[in-house]
Amino acid sequence: METENSKSFEELIENLEEIVSSLDKGGLSLDEASIMYEKGMKLASEATKILESTEMKIKKIKNEYESSEGSENVDN
Description:
single chain, mainly alpha
């Protein structure tokens, strides 16, 4: 599922934490802070997409499991 350019959720969060830390420390020019903020927002968006995709997969698995459980109970 991951392409060469995509990062894992954990990598995205790690990179996001580094950006937040840099912004918290201060000492950046307005341009640098703006660039870091933009990168952080992109990372957060990518992480959100991964979470949403994973949530959909889990719901699908749960629904399939519940459906199969219901079918087994009908047979008994």
